[in-house]
User: Fold this.
Amino acid sequence: MLSRRSILSLAAGRALAGVGSSEDAFLEDLSRRAFLYFWEQSDPKTGLTLDRAMNAGIKTLGRSREVASMAGTGFGLTALCIGHARGWAPKDQILDRIRSTLRHIDYEQAHERGWYYHFVDMRSGDRVWRSELSTIDTALLLGGVLTAQQCFVFDAEIVRMAQEIYDRVDFEWMLDAATGLLRMGWKPESGFLRSAWTKYRENAILHILAIGSTTHPIPVRCWYLFLRDQVVFDKYRFVGAGPLFTHQYSHAWIDFRGKRDGAPFNLDYFHNSINATYAHRAFCLSLRSLYPGYSENLWGVSPSDSEIGYLTWGSDFSRRDYDGTVVPSTPAGSLMFTPEISLSALREMKARFGPFIYGRYGFVDAFHPVSLWVNADVVGIDQGITLISAENLRSGRVWNWFMPQENVHWAMSRIFETEEEFLHR
Assistant:
């Protein structure tokens, strides 16, 4: 029987356990296609990344086809770093794109106390759809900004602009003093949103950045105030009842391997995401009597398009609102946690449905394996989590860039114990 130390060590090391040559060739192709999305679907001047585009790469008309996502732009900056390291585009052109993006965000992009609107026009940066200043979208943008800072630490302008963008975010302003919780956003028409980060979801990176700020920090105790809601499905236990992407996005940048927070939680967040992925797969398999398209190598549901429009499914373990649709970014985003099941799922999807669902930018947003409905679009954040999760599996490169950042390191050192500290407590 394995000791507790051995179990923790295995969980901590599994993301970099390595993949075979055929698996790596598959991931190389998938990753290059995802990178191409950010290279082609970001404005060359502003660097803002389209929220979605057609997988064929065809330009289409319509106001919605000019809308950028600030979270998508954060993924895009990280994608440029990966592309630079892997030589997927001319390195001088990638550096120029990084600089122009940071210049726009630092000097021109509208913000309020350092917080950015969720959706903006990709060319002008103007707010669209009366969207909110989004705390989580700003945090994911900062994930890309600080990754670029650390990737291009030799470039003084990039380092300076990235720090300026981070330092002006007023985290204290978004903190509800009565509860100690960070709010989800703000609108100029109505003020702070009523919603706050009351539970563990994709908000880990937001809290770590807020605690690590040297200009507008929140107290370390805020990390322990949001609820870790317990979930049990089949034989799997974990915290966080949100869709699977909520267990993936913060991990794109934050390396939680071998880390546990203090009492009362003592939670291993990396292993928690492993359990959440296996539980999600088990849930999909439990629906096979209703939706025979699901199988051991064909699973994954997350908020996505469907035959009847956009649905926010994948949030709980009920049969409500499901119809058998598959969202490829769901297993793809867990490549860094569960390569043994995520790779098999992605390869099965490509082998069986590749001509219909695998295009210029990789996998489409969603498809139905029985009705053969296929969404023509890809979504920026889907391509982003696919690319970063694959890169962390293959090299750990994004973690290696992001984690030494001074503010991040400071926050992590005050929140988390190392595995050794925990075991010898």
Notes: The mean pLDDT is 94. The two ends are 22 Å apart (CA to CA). Residues 74 and 143 are 6 Å apart (CA to CA).
